[in-house]
Amino acid sequence: MAGVVVTKPGGLQIAFWCVLATLVLSMVSRALRSTELRFGGFEFVNDESRFLWDSMRASEFPILVPHRPGRRELATKEEHIRQRHRLGPEVPLVFIEVALGDPSEFHELPLLEVKEETGRFLLRVSRSTSVAHAIAAIGLELSKVGKPPEIHFGWSDERPLAANVNFVLFGEGNIPWMVRELIRRAEPDYERQPKIVVG
Fold this sequence. Notes:
By secondary structure, the protein is an alpha/beta fold. It has one domain (34-198): Rossmann fold. It is 44% helix and 19% strand. It has helices at 2-7, 10-33, 47-58, 74-84, 131-142, 160-170, 175-186, and strands at 43-44, 63-66, 93-100, 111-117, 120-128, 150-153, 195-198. Strands 1-4-5-3-2-6-7 form a 7-stranded mixed beta sheet, sandwiched between helices. A hairpin with a 2-residue loop joins strand 4 (111-117) and strand 5. The longest helix has 24 residues, at 10-33. The radius of gyration is 21 Å and the shape is elongated.
């Protein structure tokens, strides 16, 4: 086999170019698809979650706060966001936690659990293709009735290039920019778009 490869390398070259073309086309396709919302609606963990979600959509919850589970407690995150973003205690916050599913899925039907914990509303999303897609979908759904919400992010320590590569490959990274882009493409009316706040 080694002798054939050395004396007649044409087959190896064809295989190399086929593999390279497949990889390049896959990456280009994934990059182009990354800004498509592809959201087919939520499925719910239980009837209570569905009821709380419908109640939230009918009310106006002005501030959504993405929260990465395991990094800090919700109380600490709330204190940090209220201080940095100058939000008083009278402003209700809704926290969003997203657990990734299969990032290669094309159409998204995330599983949503809505809970109220110590006076805080928490939206837990699983089976999502990306963190940014889940957050954008929640913001757009809540903006269909009443005033569109604001989505408040903290600054990330991640470098911009690494964040973009992480988003394209794994569905996480550069989340505020991607949420903004997904919302902008899904809702052309600027007045109906949820606003992105990073601080």
